[in-house]
Amino acid sequence: MKIEYQPPKRRQPVFALFKGLLxxxxxxxxxxxxxxxxxxxxxxxxxHANKMGPMIYxxxxxxxxxxxxxxxxxxxxKERFAYLRxxxxxxxxxxxxxxxxxxxxxxxxxxAFVYKGMKLLPTYTDGRLAHTVKxxxxxxxxxxxxxxxxENSEQGYKDELTDFFPGFxxxxxxxxKAYGRDVPMRPMYYHKxxxxxxxGEPFYLSDFGAAKKEDVAEAVRLKVNDLYHRIEGGEFDxxxx
Length: 241
Hints:
Number of strands: 7
Strand content: 5-15%
Largest sheet: 7 strands, mixed
Shape: globular
Strand order of the largest sheet: 1-7-6-2-5-3-4
Oligomer: single chain
Structural class: alpha/beta
Helix content: 40-55%
Order of helices and strands: HEEHEHHEHEHEEH
Distance between the termini: 56 Å
Radius of gyration: 18 Å
């Protein structure tokens, strides 16, 4: 199924109200930015942090951005239900089929609204990914940040990320070809237990020379994991007293 994607509106009053209601139930998450304040003309490479990660980024990371996400979540009810049940809950979270079906049945009714509110740019596992890359380059050129979750989560979401897909490298290359300069890229990590998002320092495609896209993806995986280890080590704990 082909989805014609339109740049999202910056103001979404109904979704803003929805997020306001969520804040009643979700504890505040701190944001720590290294190497300067976050910018909009930037490619952010973050951990997914299971189901709620993208929503947490949307609520507490105060840079307007568009996220990459599975195209099924913007599809029909049947597609959304199947993705939630079979992929999110059974495959990635090892939920019993009955529980997965129960949760997916209800969540699929409103999930499209939520994903549109989070500014989801649909991604694909076939040639249509080129369309996603092209749209990402266009949005970056309009000073709209893009957030991508490159981790391979087929075996579930992990705290320490084990494998990155290199799709974001295609965006960086496409941007350089279109605009003649590198797009800033920054690693990010949301730590669920410590309730903190850390934004790493900017880096650029040219930093990697003629490296293959798979090698770039591996280097960036290490950057994101480095943030995880620094958070775990207490570097960004809120100081008392």
